[in-house]
Amino acid sequence: MVEAWYMDESADDPRRPHRAEPSRPVGLEQLRQLGVLYWKLDADKYENDPELEKIRKERNYSWMDIITICKDKLPNYEEKMRMFYEEHLHLDDEVRYVLDGSGYFDVRDREDKWIRISMEKGDLITLPAGIYHRFTLDEKNYVKAMRLFVGDPVWTAYTRPADHFEARGRYVAFLAQTA
């Protein structure tokens, strides 16, 4: 199962776990209250997985590709890693399914504190449109992930502050309803 926790305030290497002391774990229900959805799947059968197909159909994830993030495979690796780790939001859900390797998604809670979500092989996550977040690899420096979209992919990230976007307003309203 996915593991998540509140982060410390250290500006040290973002690829480290950065667990707050004392430890403050975060459960799936708390993530759900932030609009973050999670499934554990068998990544070895992603090409013919009825569970993945069911999720894709139910959530209208019609487009997908696979990205490998490591120095040898991703052009402009250092620049892309800086970009992924800069706090931002998207106007659409961000959906990632880890097929191999591992990394971290960080999301903001209601009080604007960082929660780190450790992602590894078989983890499928949906971050809702409008949530401030960022991504980094862990110390293994490798992840292969499926990216899923409703319709054509939109890659635009809006760095914080981006509160004027309708997607952010809808997300803030969702948080108010689930409080």
TrEMBL record:
Pathway: Amino-acid biosynthesis; L-methionine biosynthesis via salvage pathway; L-methionine from S-methyl-5-thio-alpha-D-ribose 1-phosphate: step 5/6. Its cofactor is Fe(2+); Ni(2+). SUPFAM superfamilies: RmlC-like cupins. Pfam families: ARD. It is an enzyme of class 1 (oxidoreductase). It is found in: Cell membrane; Cytoplasm; Nucleus. InterPro entries: ARD, ARD_euk, RmlC-like_jellyroll, RmlC_Cupin_sf. Binds either 1 Fe or Ni cation per monomer. Iron-binding promotes an acireductone dioxygenase reaction producing 2-keto-4-methylthiobutyrate, while nickel-binding promotes an acireductone dioxygenase reaction producing 3-(methylsulfanyl)propanoate. PANTHER family: ACIREDUCTONE DIOXYGENASE. This is Acireductone dioxygenase. The lineage of its organism: Eukaryota, Metazoa, Chordata, Craniata, Vertebrata.
